[in-house]
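Entry 14. Structure prediction run on the chain below.
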Amino acid sequence: MIFSARSILPGVCLLLLFHGCAPVTKKLPFSSFISSTGTFSGAAFYRQAAGFNWRQRDSLAVDWALSGHIPSFLLKFKKVNVSIFDSATAKTIKAHYYVSPDYFSIGKDNDWARVPITPMAAQKIADSLHCFLPTPEMVDDIYAAAKVNPEPLPMYALRDSTPTMWQHHLMIEGQRKGKKGIIAGIKKDVVLSGKVSRDGRPNRVAIYGWHKPDGKPIQPLYTGHVNWYVDYSHGIRLVHETIYVEGRPMHYTEVLKHPVYSKLLCNEVWCDMFRY
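Output returned:
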């Protein structure tokens, strides 16, 4: 049997567009490619996308993200420590990885907004940054490690409309009140899950999370939506592709394929989904 325990220590990661992200122990200057001025703000994105359908919104979000219009704070990744006890060897195996402190957002530091997107768009952005999407196990670990855990805010009308997504962002910011650190529990994560390929219906997306203050998720692991469906409650968390297991850097796919190490990232029977 393998038992797990999770914690977080301070850490940052410099994420440079088109060059991926490399864990560091100090803050370094960001690439000038990342926008801090101009009209590419969160509010401007939502004004432009107000009447868009999902495909148009995705296209605009990817275009802005790959052009560098991402708030710099989102690219200062945080270090999450995890461990498992392997009863076969009676050893505790320690590892850590780096995650974005908030969900995928567009804009600049003084005017930004969280933007729900499809897993296809998320994968394009993750690939460009040498990152991947978390598993349900990792979502739980990130929530437990988070410094800011607001109460989930369900909305019930026009759930998949762009204006509702903007309104939900503003509501979360009203709760956050400027608090710093990893924030979690505010969205349902788009996740990697072995259920996706094993669902009898084609083109699925897996979502999980939206934790309540007691730590229990509102959304159990679910593959009921077609992959182009996205609503205000969905969020994209980026994780750097390098996992450090006992100090050794490993690609996340290598960890997920390992008979023991996979439990550091995944608690499902099948841990064989690596990307959308």
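The chain has one domain: 2-264.
Filed with the rest of this week's runs.
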